[in-house]
Amino acid sequence: MTAPRRRDLRCSDVAYELLAVAAGEPIVDMRARAHVRQCPRCQDELIQYRTLLRSLRRLRTDVLEPAPGLLAEVLAAIGAAGERHAVDSLVTGRRMAYAGGMAAAGAGVVVGLALLAVRSRRQRRRAPVRSARLAAILPSNRA
Amino acid sequence: MADDRLGVLIAAARAGDDAAFAELVAATHADTWTLAVRLTGNAEDAADVVQETYIRAYRSLSGFRGDARFTTWLHRITANCAASHRGRRVRHRHDELNPDTPVVDTHRDHDPQAHVDDEALRVELLAALDRLPSRLRTVVVLRDVYDLPHEAIASELGISVSAAKVRLHRGRRRLRDSLTGLGATAQEVSAALDTGSATAEQGVA
Question: Cβ–Cβ of B29/A70 closer than 8 Å?
Answer without folding.
Answer: yes
